[in-house]
Amino acid sequence: MFTVSDLWRYPIKSHGREHIDTVELTAGQTMPWDRHWAVTHGDSKFDADNPAWVMCRNFMIGASTPSLAGISAELDAEKEALTLRHSKLGELTFWPGKAEDHTRFLDWVRPICPADQRQPFGLAAVPNRGMTDTDYPTVSIMTNASHRAVEGRIGRPLERERWRGNIWLDGPALWEEFEWIGKRIQIGGAVLEVIEPIQRCKHTMANPASGVRDTDTLAALNEGFGHQDFGVYATVVDSGSVSCGDTAKVI
Description:
single chain; three-stranded antiparallel β-sheet
């Protein structure tokens, strides 16, 4: 039997993380408000007139703009008001669902986007679909044992926020999550099917407080464990509530 230690959502893809205590998962959908919005750039193929999922390269992401990793978020879901914080930018509260408020956000985040690289252009959203990296709606599951193993390889404490996971579990053994692929796991009142491992990118190299790349997490994975994966993608099969402290088990 495992235990849910933490729950996280990311209201704007690559632009802030938020710790939550409980969530209602719905079959066939992403976590509510997770990657609900994404930030387009000038070369984005996202069509605002016909909104549909597109690959992550169409958005501003931490793999190419590491300073974004330093953003934290706080969402008032009832009002759809989002507060973002960054050590260099201060605090901004705005309403990402209102087109007239997008300029305030873009002006706020632009100073940490290198001028010689892609610049933030607009906010994208798809009805009933979070902008996950997968072309199907997923929830990501991480284990604390695997994180501790990476810490051991690096030789110092490492922030778990680097992995941008939705559900963190205590109890599984090191890399046990990869054994769940093709199986179902009950977490709280929900049931999820584990689909595939998550191959990691340079976003994990950036410090979640400063946004500075200060740790070669990819080398730690590849050289220490022979792969570049951390965590697994899962789909919600049966709807239900999940809270920190809930139990989980493979079924």
